[in-house]
Write a structure and sequence with these properties.
By secondary structure, the protein is α/β, with parallel strands linked by helices. Helix content is 56%, strand content 14%. The protein folds into three domains: 2-161, Beta Polymerase, domain 2 (2-Layer Sandwich); 166-309, Rossmann fold (3-Layer(aba) Sandwich), CATH 3.40.50; 363-415, no CATH class.
Length: 420
């Protein structure tokens, strides 16, 4: 039998320092999936890695200690202390693993309750596993079901009705610091989905000026032009940093883009006018020691939690309704799992009968070729089939009778409809 397991860390169990150590970027995920599938007995695996979580969803053989092996593999692959990792991981099995995935897909396990970005990230993780050929029937069906559950909950509840997201929270924090934006400049690092949401919220708040920096200038220009901004490459950041009153960063860079020295130089040009920096990336885009500078206000993604809490009240009732819907969908998926086990048994039974029928077919043809009449051959086949196929059931029935196992006897009667 195959079992389900979900193991990982998230913003509730691990600090941003630990999360960035354990994170996998888009280029690393396929390599990690391949390496894990080649160096373990894990049958199927999907790896989800975002700024707030890194999780492994696995199908493992019954009796296999998937949790211990994953901890060993992760600590070695990411060069982390196993003890440090073990202190912040969670591990869910079977129904609880299903529940966890459904809650993640719906945004119920996110820092921002009901945020929609996680569903897209989950679909990306699913596609990576498809391309790496680490998916089979079980996880394929489970993830498709999770997408369906998330869509149903977004349609039938108000979980996504309020404009709450990490991007929205970042802009709300900036509003608390600066008030109106019309006289200020924002420098956005990145051009992905999160920064696009930030840019749109800033534009709607009548930001004075927007600069978008990205590794690919064309992508930065595409976003900037749409929102009356200006596009630059990442290499041009030092020339424009001093212009920024607000810096919001969310890239996939493995190393910080803004160093302490770079920000210090910009502050000298600004004559120490205050600068607000909000780092939404994991690994961080802004070096942690930047906060040591005067007139600098640096916030990480974890620091946004207080801002986010103010916007959760409208989603609480919808979340409760979503939890009830998830309970129902877990039952549906478990029913499918049970039926899957029955199908496997039926296939095994059919294979058994076909395997035993083939020698009889050859023997029957041999008898016919030797001049035996069809009636004699039919009698021979029926007699031999009865003896062969009923030998084991009859042996088990005798054992049940000797052991007083009436339940086995009753099931056999029901299986072969003997009561009628």
């Amino acid at each position: 039998m195959t079992q389900l397991l979900a193991l990982g860390i998230n913003h509730n169990t691990a600090s941003v320092e630990v999360r960035e150590q354990l994170s996998f970027n888009a280029e690393q995920v396929p390599l990690a999936l391949h390496h894990l599938s080649q160096h373990s007995a894990i049958e199927e695996v999907v790896l989800l890695s975002t700024c707030n979580r890194t999780e492994f969803y696995c199908a493992i053989p019954d009796g296999y200690d998937g949790q211990a092996h994953l901890l060993d593999w992760i600590s070695e692959y990411q060069q982390m202390q196993r003890e440090e990792l073990a202190q912040c991981v969670y591990c869910h099995r079977e129904n609880e693993a299903i529940r966890h995935l459904f809650r993640v897909a719906c945004g119920l396990d996110s820092m921002v309750l009901g945020e929609p970005q996680i569903l897209g990230q989950l679909k990306d993780a699913y596609r990576y596993a498809q391309n790496a050929k680490t998916l089979n029937t079980l996880l394929e069906r489970l993830f498709q079901h999770s997408f369906s559950v998330a869509k149903q909950i977004r349609t039938d509840t108000a979980i996504g009705s309020s404009p709450v997201s990490v991007a929205f929270a970042a802009v709300r924090l900036a509003q608390q610091v600066f008030g109106k934006f019309d006289k200020y400049t924002a420098l956005l690092l990145g051009a992905g989905e999160t920064i696009e949401l930030v840019a749109r919220h800033l534009h709607e708040s009548e930001l004075g000026r927007m600069v978008v920096a990205n590794r690919t200038l064309e992508r930065a220009r595409h976003l900037a032009v749409e929102l009356d901004g200006y596009a630059i490459t990442l290499s041009e950041i030092p020339q424009h940093l001093s212009e920024a009153d607000i810096v919001i960063a969310s890239t996939a860079s493995p190393e910080p883009l803004l160093s302490k020295a770079m920000v210090e130089a910009a502050m000298q040009q600004r004559k120490h006018r205050p600068m607000l920096l909000i780092d939404l990336a994991v690994p961080r885009d802004i070096a942690a020691d930047v906060e040591e500078l005067e007139d600098i206000y640096l916030y990480s993604v974890d620091d946004l939690n207080d801002v986010i809490q103010e916007n959760l009240r409208s989603r609480t009732e919808a979340a409760q309704q979503a939890e009830e819907m998830i309970d129902t969908e877990i039952s549906h998926f478990v029913d499918w799992l049970k039926s899957r086990a029955v199908v496997e048994s039926i296939c095994a039974l059919r294979d058994y009968t076909q395997k035993n029928a083939e020698p009889l077919r050859k023997k029957a043809n041999q008898l016919l070729n030797n001049g035996k009449s069809p009636e004699e051959v039919i009698d021979f086949v029926i007699h031999r089939m009865s003896n062969q196929w009923l030998h084991t059931p009859c042996t088990r029935l005798r054992e049940a009778g000797s052991n007083g196992d009436q339940n086995f006897i009753d099931i056999t009667k029901r299986l072969f409809d003997l009561d009628t």
